[in-house]
Amino acid sequence: MxxxxxxxxxxxxxxxxxxxxGSVIGNQDTLSQQQLWGTVLSCAIASRSPRVLRELExxxxxxxxxxxxxxxxxxxxxxxxxxxxxRTRHLLSDPEYGTLRxxxxxxxxxxxxxxxxxxxxxxxxxxxxxxxxxxxxxxEQVLRKAGVDRETVQEAFKIAxxxxxxxxxxxxxxxxxxx
Length: 179
Prior knowledge:
- The protein is an all-alpha fold.
- It has one domain: AhpD-like (Up-down Bundle), CATH 1.20.1290.10.
- Helix content is 74%, strand content 0%.
- It has nine helices and no strands.
- It has helices at 3-9, 15-26, 33-46, 50-63, 66-91, 107-110, 116-130, 133-145, 150-177.
- The chain is globular.
């Protein structure tokens, strides 16, 4: 199970995904190793693809400290909740929902166990996978205020986009093969 076996599973019609996967993960020089593999792991979880998660998790676990591994999983978990909640509040036509207290526990955001910037980057990437504009804006603003450049922010959502596309493609191929 590895990045290479995941790349080899991508069908020829999606060759661009194979090349992009190798590029955003294998030829990375913008993100630190922790930022890279935390982004990969949190997005693999957010993709909801057992195959993608199975293939990428061992390399992520090997590259991350136990604290960073847990924090990346925590980012995927908390953003799974927040992305639904805040996206729904944003999409409802009644703006009064935005004035109500959320009433949801989000303690891990305040104390993620890793550098705040890394956790914010992972939260942004998961929000990209889950399509929550309000969360994307919020995490991007925190990152930019902390001095993170746009290229680094974009690298996180590039990884999110490629992992999500690989997940969709491989899961579709598996479903078609099962027919």
